Each structure stands twice: as structure tokens, then as C-alpha cells.
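Kindly inspect the following:
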Amino acid sequence: MIRIKVLFVSLAMMFGFSMAYAKQSSNLSAPVYHAKKSVSNLKAVPAEHLHKTANLSYQVAGKRYYPLQKVASFSQVGRASYYGQNFQGRRTSSGERFNSQMLTAAHPTLPIPSYARVTNLSNGKTVVVRVNDRGPFHANRVMDLSYAAAQQLGFVRAGTAQVRVEQIVPGERIQPAGTGGNIYVDLQRFGSKEKAQQYLKATSRHLQAAGSQQQTKLVKVNNSYVVRMGPFQQQQRADEAKKSMLTAL
């Protein structure tokens, strides 16, 4: 019976289905996804206990995946897709019920649960999602998003989009979903507030001298201080400006 269940899960993964489908008949005793956990209701990313089994290494179609064991800095660019409506109500890898109207996502290796900022690189729109599932298992895709998240990113009709996925660490404030014009990039992270302020002044002077409309600001994230620059309309422009700034200073 165990071998049959393992085979079923493996086949589901092989064809690109998220774990929500593979675990629809499991006997997991896990909490359902309550509205109070919605990203829309959060002002800052909470520190959550990582799932005991969803972060263990696993193998799909001959490839082994090693989920990250802690929430830390992470950035990735690739193609994103979104769940079909037939996944509604099924179990995710975290044991929570999938809800297409919640801002959630599946990722092969990001910690479960954790939060990520996803940016559509074609239009600059951003959304923060809660990672609570594994998948997709296509070579050219890095994340599966809920319908609500895909809708906010503006690619429901297209089906897929080139995105940037950035892990958000606990304590970091969540900005409202972006419609362009509110993209910020992290320049440097410091353990000392004094050093962060010195860097902030240097970057501010550089932007003023260049006649730039962008500004830099200091944000405290846990026990560190991050200097950010923005806002930008497009992610590509933000990345170019960051590279230029880091080269100049």
C-alpha cells in the first residue's frame, strides 16, 4: 500500500503537478489555510516554525531536490506559471488546503512555510506570496502561483511570465502589491546602524549628483540594516541602477 502511494506521488510530480494534487488522498493531520494567515492581512513577515517533513530532501523523475533549511537571502529569475482551478481545496505540501484566492505559491526548494516577493519582469508588478507547496517540476519553471497571485502579476491570460523570486526574511515589512512604480532594490546590508547610515549618505549624494529621481532609504530587518534604492517602474531598470551604484561606490 505504501509503495502504491509513493508511486502515485512520484507520477504526479513527474507530470508537473504540485504536491496539492499528489496529497489529495493523504491522511495528513494538518491545519487548513485560515484567512488570518493571508498575506493580504500581514504588515510584516512573521517568523514561523518550518514544517518537519516538507523541507526534507526528495526525488522527482530521477532528480533530487534539497530544500533550504532556513529562511535567508535568496534570489532567482525564471519562468512562473499558476495552479489550475482543479487544485482548489486539495492538500499542499504543508498540509494546508490550497485556496486559489490566497496569495500562495509552490517552489522546489524554498523553506515551507516562508514568504517571497515575486516580480513580473515584463511589467514591474510585484506580489508577496506565502510558499506552502512543492513544485513545479518543469525544467523551465521556477514557481507555481495561485490564481490570485498570477492575477496581481498580470499574466493570467498569458499563462506564464518571466519573474524574479526573492525570499523575504522574518521581520521585513510587506509592501502592498505593486502595479509598477514601487520597486525597490537592496544595495547593502549592515550589522551596524552607524555604517549603514554612512553608506546611506554616500548613496544619497551620488544620486543627487547624478540628478536621479530615485532615493535611498534605511530599513531595519531583524538585527541588520538594509539600504534600499527606488522607486522604479521596471525591474530591469532597477537592476541596472543597482549595478551602476555598486560599481560607482
